[in-house]
Write a structure and sequence with these properties.
Layout: H1 4-8, H2 14-34, E1 53-59, E2 62-67, E3 82-87, E4 92-103, E5 111-116, H3 117-123, E6 125-145, E7 169-182, E8 190-193
Antiparallel strand pairs: 1-2, 1-6, 2-4, 3-4, 4-5, 6-7, 7-8
């Protein structure tokens, strides 16, 4: 005779389980659709992931449009914005300097100004500019082949001979963001990369 605990267990047939799985999948799918990007918030709260404004830096009443790149090695892709020089007025012998590219408005030519990095960090002002678009560029970098330093077999075939191992590329993916912003004095939007907004 079945106990009371066993009597409460009602087994499902495979057909019933299949119907329940379909119902759960449909519920998950409809839940994901409700959380879509085109959903409307009744509280009018903005999406925390969206970028609506960025801080464009200013020095001497001009916008910092970018930094001069001192990288002259064709094998290196990473830009080099800093150079190290002596500052005899302060008694410093190896200090980082940066060359700013400045522009006040679209009618004015861009000018360069070299200054010590610490002075730039202390003297810069921030202008909160409206960001109208963020472009994301995905870059895949190749670093050779995984395990290429040693030749060894991972398996042997039925004749006892080593099998050629599968080669796997060592690659990384990174993102570069480009911010399209509106600035006063410029009739068309201006593009900044993330480095120039730091």
């Amino acid at each position: 005779m079945a106990t009371e605990k066993e009597a409460k267990k009602v087994p499902f047939t495979p057909e019933q389980m299949e119907i329940m799985q379909q119902m759960l999948a449909e519920a998950r799918e409809s839940g994901n659709q409700r959380k879509g990007a085109d959903a409307i918030s009744i509280y009018n709260a903005r999406d925390p992931k969206s970028i609506e404004s960025v801080n464009v830096k200013r020095i001497d009443g001009k916008f910092v449009m970018g930094f001069k790149n001192f990288q002259n090695d064709s094998f290196k892709k990473k830009p080099q914005y800093l150079i190290y020089k002596a500052d005899p007025t302060r008694g410093l012998y190896k200090e980082p300097f940066i060359t700013l590219i400045l522009q006040e408005n679209e009618n004015e030519e861009k000018v360069e100004r070299e200054m010590m990095l610490v002075d730039y960090m202390n003297e810069r002002e921030k202008y909160q500019a409206k960001c109208i678009e963020v472009k994301v560029n995905k870059i895949i970098e190749d670093h050779g082949i995984l395990g290429s330093s040693g030749e060894y077999a991972v398996a042997v075939d039925d004749k006892g001979q080593p099998m050629q191992r599968q080669q796997i590329l060592a690659q990384t993916e990174r993102e570069e963001r480009e911010f399209i912003v509106e600035l006063p004095g410029f009739s068309s939007p201006v593009s900044f990369i993330g480095d120039f907004l730091a």
